[in-house]
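Ligand-bound model needed. magnesium ion.
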Amino acid sequence: MTSKLPSAIFFDLDDTIVAYDGNVRPIWQTLSDAYAAKTKAVDANVLFQQIMEISRWYWGDIERHKTGRQDMKKARREIVRTTFGKLDLDTTDADSLADEYSKRRREEIELFPQARETLEEFQNANVRMALISNGEAALQREKLTRFELEKYFDLILLEGELGFGKPEHRVFRLALDKMSLNAADVWMVGDSLTYDISPANELGIYTVWNDWKKKGLPPDCGAKPDRIVNSIHELL
Ligand SMILES: [Mg+2]
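Prediction:
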């Protein structure tokens, strides 16, 4: 454990504590293969690539992202329907394919290795912790319950419960206020430069970027994390 610990740490959930996005491509690849084999209506790889392209388009827009993440099931249905439309496929099966994807994404979420030990060590060192997570309340609560994570946090702020979330400053300010903290005494740890790092940085919070993909900072990204780690365990 490093000697200089903060009073508190704000953690993001997805791809910071739980592994989430790493399953996207393998699951879509599997489902595209199965759909192509069953229907013979399209080449599996063409379907897979088109789903990836439409997903990037869908989630690439900050306003659409905001609406979509409040109802992931609906968002994924829209992505698959749009894909099927582009490929001139019969849309009868689009929703069931999207729903199967949602089911598998939920099933395949797991804790990052040593994530629990990391949270436990901080708790033992009396570092207070808050969780600040975007997305649907039910889905996020399900993850917290399933991995028994609630007990580590003094405060849990979920966008789906609050009606607002990252990257808005007010969610970070709310956490600081509720825990009576100064920004200078806090770390924000998250994987998103846009949603976690930049806004926290602007508020004077020490920012730690979880570069779990080990890709390094993209050139000209504008975000300036104070520290970069490949897993939260490195914080100890
Ligand atoms: Mg995240």
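Residues 12, 14-16, 190-192 surround magnesium ion (CB under 6 Å).
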